[in-house]
Every structure is written in structure tokens, then in C-alpha cells.
């Protein structure tokens, strides 16, 4: 899918591109898809694993499946929100390593949010996306 999303990291704000995201994403007129928060639940109903590293891999698989359904790529993502239970330096490192791999060099606007709990016991990470689609 070819989309027009302009990424901006103005000199007046911290350079987010060093961390793999953009401060501002400007989306040209068109359709947007709002992808619900994806957690470490598998399509076959399998239970979420216990570790953050394992969960974020399943989340990335779910995000990839959502993009495929939209006929989109990570470069079509305008914005992501990442919710992590007990967010700290270690969990940020684990989560962002896998999310960075998933993004394949795309740098959407991104917000990381520490939370005390998610929708079900044992879930450690949830990621939602806004995607520009044709």
C-alpha cells in the first residue's frame, strides 16, 4: 500500500527518531483504520505466556495479522499506543526491541504508557494502532 504520511521531528522537540519513532505524523486525506489493542491472545484461544518477551512476540504477530487484513505495512501506521504493566527501563527495553523489529524501520508517532493492569489477569502488554489505508 502506498500512503502519504509525513514524519516530523522538529528541532524544537527531542529527536525521537533516535528511539525509532516520530514526534509528529501528518496523514494525507484518506481512510484511517483504528486497530483495537492487541494482547498476547492467539486466534486459537491459547493462553498468554507468562513473560513479557513471549507476550510481545505474540502481540507483534497479531499486529502483523491486522496489517495484512488491511493490506497495509508498518509504514502505514500513523500512531501506536503501547500499554505495559509495571513499565520500567527493563520492560521498556524488552518491549521496544520487539516493537522496533515489527516496525521494520517505520517510525510512527508512539506513546508508551505504564499501567497497573490490563483487561485480563496475566496480560503484560497491549498495543493499539491507527493505520492509514487506501
TrEMBL record:
GO terms for cellular component: cytosol. InterPro entries: RutC-like_sf, YjgF/YER057c/UK114. One of its GO terms (molecular function) is deaminase activity. CDD domains: YjgF_YER057c_UK114_family. Transmembrane segments: none annotated. Gene3D superfamilies: RutC-like (3.30.1330.40). Belongs to the RutC family. This is Endoribonuclease L-PSP. The lineage of its organism: Bacteria, Pseudomonadati, Pseudomonadota, Alphaproteobacteria, Hyphomicrobiales.
Amino acid at each position: 500500500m502506498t500512503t502519504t504520511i509525513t514524519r516530523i521531528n522538529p528541532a524544537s522537540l527531542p529527536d525521537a527518531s533516535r528511539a525509532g519513532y516520530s514526534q509528529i505524523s501528518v496523514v494525507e486525506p484518506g481512510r484511517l483504520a483504528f486497530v483495537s489493542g492487541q494482547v498476547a491472545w492467539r486466534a486459537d484461544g491459547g493462553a498468554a505466556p507468562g513473560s513479557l518477551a513471549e507476550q510481545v512476540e505474540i502481540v507483534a504477530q497479531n499486529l502483523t495479522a491486522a496489517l495484512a487484513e488491511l493490506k497495509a505495512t508498518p509504514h502505514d501506521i500513523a500512531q501506536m499506543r503501547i500499554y505495559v504493566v509495571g513499565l520500567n527501563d527493563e520492560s521498556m527495553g524488552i518491549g521496544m526491541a520487539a516493537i522496533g523489529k515489527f516496525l521494520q524501520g517505520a517510525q510512527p508517532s508512539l506513546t508508551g504508557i505504564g499501567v497497573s493492569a490490563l483487561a485480563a489477569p496475566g496480560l503484560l502488554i497491549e498495543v493499539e494502532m491507527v493505520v492509514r489505508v487506501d
